[in-house]
Specification:
heterodimer, A: 278 residues, alpha/beta, Rossmann fold, 12 helices, 8 strands, 15% strand, B: 373 residues, 42% helix, Sig_transdc_resp-reg_receiver (chain B)
Chain lengths: 278, 373
């Protein structure tokens, strides 16, 4: 514990958790693209798959990990002093972009038997080695998710304005996070698939949440699917799409590079819409 | 309402007086005979032509006793009376021929509720619990369960329950536009003090023969639901419903595992959405293969299958190396509108391809010979 404390003082990576209260809203896709864009911008980045049972990060990146978070926490448990987490990372590399992946366990029983405390210790260890640690989660307030959200710098709350039950769960989830004491500023709503088939108005959802969307990503299901089948994050793919641009803009906001460009929260929507209709 | 001619057997004098008074003061109930000793009632009770026998099973060896009463009074319904709920005892007396099980002392309302609940079909231990499990999130199972529940009730004419155990973010209440007074949180909290009749009131009626036990109102209540109490609740619900459909949180967790273990059938449900659904399905199946009877117990369903035909089904079977029990077509707009309006019970028209596929599955389930065990 003392060792970790010292490390944190030396270097303490920013932990960005990607969370949602509904599944299949694009958490994993967003996580890997956030990681890729941060890496492309020159940061040292690690993305951790915290969907321990059914994690998709390695599927989406076409990686076959030799070591996983299971091995890392096991080693941390048995090591006195500093553990080199590099050994447990699976590198992802495409053209000039490199980032690390801490994969979900290979076996289900490994996944089922990892304690929250063990994950937290691993995260404390690796945050000392990276500028950014991106955490991909599951859509539930599990012990694990609550614990990692506690130590997160920022929580990207991904939502889809799709149908009423999903929005109800977003509202209920947000209220829960506020009630357990998370600052408004720590939670950033990102709307995915903004123009999907729906009869629900964005404004109505914002009114219900009493919060604006920090960023809005366009609906481009086919591009997204294509990217996960290719195993290449959209933001580092050669082809620029509205979706990849939208993700890059999110990272620009997070890293404060977009500050001068616009202070309006919906800037990204208007900018890509404008481009589409030019 | 028919007239009930009650024969009451109760070994405790004070309880006897108390129950007698309740029976006498209940409309349409007539107390025609009473006995403290069951043997005596067997010998002499027939004179009074009872059509309802309230039989205390705490004092005697119940199994044998119930059998003898069934033989002696073939035209009468028998309700077993006990001072506490005991799933084992309930199962035993119903197997022996009793219609149901009632906790004493009871009120007039509880007596009437028991008659209404157990009246026609009997509480029947023939019940089938089905858990709908999704490996990784979004599966379309809530839509499936809602519609399947209704199809089963229509086909069988028997009681169907839907239990929303997707504890944190269950959507069943929204699907049916319910504002429940009681949810799974209260039902599991109170289970120790409940009998089947009182448990029934925790379920909200949504259509003929279909009732729903709603999920938590807020995610933080989820931790109040203990897997043990949850399993006990399912076990008790068996005496109320022919079919019990349980919606559980995705992945393996204490609640989804408890539900799966309490079930006759586990349906693994996954939505085709262009990702790695087949991989997740295989991964989940691998875990269930630890069960010796997994081939009969575990079935798979894919939703949003396009094109929804036999070739596609076979292709999926090849991918997951396991039989695919059912495939459902994509009806996104139909389903989302029905859910948005809280009209899941009426908005999915019987003729739609989705409804037809679900009907087919319901027919399979109804036609299945019941396996005792």
């Amino acid at each position: 514990m003392v060792k970790q404390k010292v490390e944190e003082e030396i270097r303490s990576g920013i932990i960005m958790t990607v969370f949602s209260t509904a599944s299949a809203v694009g958490k994993t896709l967003l996580s890997i693209n956030m990681a890729a864009e941060l890496a492309r911008s020159g940061y040292k980045v690690c993305v951790v798959d915290l969907d321990l049972q059914f994690g998709d990060i390695c599927n989406y990146l076409h990686l076959s990990p030799q070591k996983t978070i299971y091995d890392a926490q096991k080693a941390a448990e048995n090591t006195v002093g500093q553990l080199d987490y590099g050994e447990y990372m699976t590198p992802y590399e495409y053209e000039d972009t490199i980032f690390s992946v801490l994969a979900a366990p290979q076996k289900m029983e490994e996944a089922y038997n990892i304690s929250t405390q063990a994950v937290i210790e691993v995260l404390a260890g690796i945050r000392g080695e990276y500028d950014y640690v991106v955490l991909d989660t599951t859509a539930t307030f599990s012990d694990l998710n609550l614990a990692v959200m506690d130590l997160s710098t920022m929580i990207t709350f991904v939502g889809i304005v799709d149908f009423i039950p999903t929005i109800k769960n977003m509202k209920v989830g947000y209220d829960t996070m506020r009630s357990i004491g998370y600052e408004k500023n720590k939670i950033r709503f990102v709307l995915n698939r903004s123009n999907s088939k729906t009869h629900i108005e964005l404004q109505d959802v914002e009114q219900l949440l009493e919060e604006r969307f920090y960023h809005i990503l366009p609906n481009d299901f086919l591009t997204a699917i294509d990217s996960i089948h290719q195993g290449i994050p959209l933001v580092i793919n050669d082809e620029e799409t509205a979706l990849s641009r939208g993700m890059q803009e999110l990272i620009e906001k997070y890293t404060n590079r977009a500050r001068q460009r616009s202070s309006r929260k919906n800037a990204s929507l208007s900018s890509w819409v404008k481009r589409l209709f030019k | 309402m028919p007239e009930y001619r009650v024969l009451l057997i109760e070994s405790n004098r004070i309880m006897m007086e108390r129950l007698s008074s309740v029976v006498r003061n209940t409309k349409n109930f007539q107390l025609v005979s009473r006995a403290m000793d069951a043997r005596e009632a067997l010998g002499q009770g027939g004179v009074f032509v009872p059509n309802l026998i309230l039989l205390d099973i705490d004092a005697q060896e119940s199994m044998q006793l119930v059998r003898e009463f069934v033989r002696a009074f073939p035209q009468a319904g028998i309700l077993a009376l006990s001072s506490q709920w005991n799933a084992q005892a309930a199962s035993t007396v119903v197997k022996a021929g009793a219609k149901g099980y009632l906790i004493k002392p009871f009120t007039s309302d509880e007596l009437i509720a028991a008659i209404n609940t157990f009246g026609n079909s009997g509480m029947g231990m023939i019940s089938e619990v089905m858990t709908f499990f999704s490996p990784k999130g979004k599966s379309g199972k809530t839509t499936l369960i809602a519609n399947l529940g209704m199809a089963l009730a229509q086909k069988s004419g028997q009681n169907v329950a839907i239990i929303d155990a997707d504890l944190q973010f269950g959507d069943m209440a929204v699907f049916f536009n319910l504002d429940p007074q009681s949810t799974i949180v209260e039902a599991t909290r109170d289970i120790k003090f409940l009998s089947p009749i009182s448990l029934n009131s925790y379920f909200m009626p949504i259509a003929d023969h279909v009732r729903v036990l709603c999920g938590t109102k807020r995610p933080e209540f989820a931790e109040d639901v203990s897997p043990k109490a949850f399993a006990e609740m399912i076990s008790m619900a068996r005496s109320l419903f022919r079919y019990i459909l349980v919606d559980v949180p995705s992945a393996f967790n204490p609640i989804s595992v408890a539900a799966a273990e309490a079930s006759e059938q586990v349906y693994l449900v996954s939505m085709i959405s262009g990702g790695y659904e087949d991989k997740h399905m295989r991964r989940a199946l691998d875990i269930f293969k630890a069960w010796p009877d997994y081939e009969t117990k575990v079935k798979t369903i894919f939703t949003r299958v396009e094109p929804c035909d036999i070739q596609k089904q076979q292709q999926l079977e090849t991918l997951i190396e396991y039989p695919v029990c059912s495939i459902l077509p994509n009806e996104y707009l139909l389903v989302s509108e029905a859910a948005n309006n809280g009209r899941m019970a009426v908005d999915i028209k019987p003729g739609s391809p989705l409804a037809r596929s679900i009907d087919l599955l319901a027919a399979k389930i109804c036609g299945r010979p019941h396996k005792v065990g």
